[in-house]
Amino acid sequence: MLSASESPAPDREPDREPGRPHLLLRAGDAVCALPLAAVRRVVKALPVHRLPGSAPELAGLAEFAGEPLPVLDLARLVAAAPGATPAYPVTVIAWAGRAQDRELVGLAADAALEVAEIAAEAMVGGGSGVVAGEAEVAGRAVRVIDPAELAGDGREAGSPAAGGAG
Questions:
Q1: What whole-number distance in Å separates Cα of residue 128 and Cα of residue 130?
Q2: How far apart are CA 68 and CA 165, in angstroms?
Q3: Distance, CA of 2 to CA of 21 (rounded, Å)
């Protein structure tokens, strides 16, 4: 038991919330963080069938567990410049949308890197669209993805995220 003159252990900050686990992904020249609670599976890049006239962020449709799966291009979603040719591209099967009407989507990424803890107070900037903000992880800037924004709204024709008039 601590007396009034003692302080808590130095390795623990009393007012700091613990971080939440996020899957770090490389997408073009950017590193993105997707909350681990939204990740269902990470698989080798799925074959994607382009859809004529679709928004550029929609890479196309793939098959997952016998069902069609919309696959979004993560680099385009976060406006990342192209990076090096990926050695082991992946598709992240993730829950998108609000809890009451979520759906599965695929996120095409150049690589799955690691799982890292990101505390809410570590995020800066009010992101727009799918980017909730940025955080620093191991000395690098990471774009934190909001899974609720991955479904529907930001990908519809005419929306600013889809490059339309809005």
A1: 6
A2: 29
A3: 31
- Secondary structure of the chain in HEC code, one letter for each residue: CCCCCCCCCCCCCCCCCCCEEEEEEEECCEEEEEEHHHEEEEEECCCCECCCCCCCCEEEEEEECCEEEEEEEHHHHCCCCCCCCCCCCEEEEEEECCHHHCEEEEEEECEEEEEEEECHHHCECCCCCCEEEEEEECCEEEEEECHHHCCCHHHCCCCHHHCCCC
φ, ψ of residue 57 in degrees (nearest 5): -70, -20
Instruction: For each of the domains in the chain, give its residue range(s) and CATH number, in order of start.
Output: 20-161 (2.40.50.180)
Percent of the chain scored above 70 by pLDDT? 80
User: What is the model's pTM?
Assistant: 0.80
**What's the burial of 123, exposed, middle or buried (CB within 10 Å: 0-12/13-18/19+)?**
middle
- pLDDT over 80 (residue 110): yes
Per-residue pLDDT band at 99 (split at 50, 70, 90) = confident
Residue 162, C-beta contacts closer than 8 angstroms, at least 6 positions apart: 55, 56, 57, 154, 155, 156
